[in-house]
Amino acid sequence: MKMCRFLILLGIVSLLGGQSLLAQEGKDEKEQQIKTLIDSGIYRLEVDRALPMGGRSVNLTSSYGFEIKGDSIYSHLPYYGRAYSVPYGGGNGLSFDKPIENYDVTYDEKNKATITFSTRSDDDRHEFRVQIYSNGTASVFIQPVNRQSITFQGNIVLPEK
Question: Is 54 left (phi over 0), alpha (psi -120 to 50) or beta?
Fold first, then answer.
């Protein structure tokens, strides 16, 4: 009887351990996929929350984000905050398709990627600092010259299998 209980317990433990091992393999595969996307220089981020300086966070209900393709950024982001100097009519804010400069990627010990670059739109110059975590979540900090800085939160878009 004790042997039967032992075998049942052993079976349960190995079943749970196997699921944990499969979950770890899936996590490692996702981390590698994210790293490959970032290193390729072609990826897209979708944001769902804006955090303006000195204001409340804003949940975004429309599709916003930006895409990096080689040496260019295709940005479609809203702007909330104070503008110090803008062109007549308000300008385009953070919606632009422009080349990027000083693109740099670094990884820390937890595989968090920190990406920095700058770009110049028709209205302003923008410094970007993007942090993409190993689980795919992302934080985007944008420092324009003529407006208050703003942060966005979202996710990297993984290609469908």
Answer: left
